[in-house]
Amino acid sequence: MIRLGILLSGRGSNFQAIHRAILEGKLNAQIACVISNIHEAGGVEYARQHDLPVHALTSKGIPRAEFDSKVLEIFKEANVDLVCLAGYMRLLSKDFISAYRGRILNIHPSLLPSFPGLHAQRQAFEHGVKITGCTVHLVDEGLDTGPILAQTAVPVLHGDTEETLSARILAEEHKLYAATIQTFAEERTAHQ
Ligand code: GRF
Questions:
Q1: What is the Cα–Cα distance from 168 to 165, expressed in whole angstroms?
Q2: What is the residue with the minimal CA distance to atom 1 of ligand 1?
Q3: How far is the CA of 15 from the centre of ligand 1 (A)?
Q4: Catalytic one of 19, 108, 137, 174
Q5: Distance (Å, rounded) from C-alpha 147 to C-alpha 135?
Q6: Domains of the chain
Q7: Mean pLDDT, consecutive 10-residue segments, the chain of 192 residues?
Q8: Which pTM does this prediction carry?
Q9: In the chain, what is the greatest distance between 2 CA atoms, to the nearest angstrom?
Q10: DSSP secondary-structure letter at 157?
């Protein structure tokens, strides 16, 4: 069974959705390890409540390469096969990406390549697009540039605010991420 390493910095609703999908039998995976660079992150609290292995490591003031090598060490120790970024607000070092090349996923709240970077929902909203969505992609050295694995389109509705639009996208993120991880796991098994 594929072993997931989750990286997060915040509320962790995507991480929770992945965990729920596992509990519901929709995703055949195991959460091997959760790492947050923010101690107070909601995702850390959730992991503790559900007895999932979690580490909160302070990243502030620590060089990226040093921090990432610590993360790498913990993930290797936990036999992580696939790294899932779930609201992880840091760029990864080159060494980390090399170590897990082709095995790092991210979820982004827009239809990439439109609106990469921070506040993707706000960017889409302010641009006035009528359709936006979410994307799961492989992580490379760029910012939200890696190969796209899956996308869901979400309409921008009359009367939307950035908040209502973000909530509609988030509901789709939760479905798309778990489903894409399941597909990734199945393809990996087929090629083994
Ligand atoms: C999500 O919108 C995700 O697409 C983006 O960061 C946000 C994280 O939310 N990468 P959560 O912590 O999973 O609730």
A1: 5
A2: 87
A3: 9
A4: 108
A5: 10
A6: 2-190 (3.40.50.170)
A7: 97 98 98 97 98 95 95 98 97 96 98 98 97 98 96 98 98 98 93 79
A8: 0.97
A9: 50
A10: P
| Terminal-residue alpha carbon distance, the chain | 12
The answer to whether 108 is a known catalytic residue is yes
Q: CB–CB of 141/117 below 8 Å?
A: no
Q: Which residues lie across from 154 on neighbouring strands? A: 132
Pocket test for ligand 1, best of 8, 9, 14, 115 (most atoms within 8 A of CB): 14
pLDDT at position 192, please?
Answer: 77
What does residue 61 show for φ and ψ, rounded to 5 degrees?
80, 5
Identity of the amino acid at 85: L
The Å distance, Cα 192 to ligand 1 centre, comes to: 31
Q: Is 133 touching ligand 1 by the criterion CB < 6 Å?
A: no
**Structure tokens given for 73:** 């060490």
Q: How far is CA 20 from CA 25, 59, 76, 142, 186, in A?
A: 9, 28, 24, 30, 19
- CB of 86 within 6 A of ligand 1: the answer is yes
CA of 174 to the centre of ligand 1 (A): 9
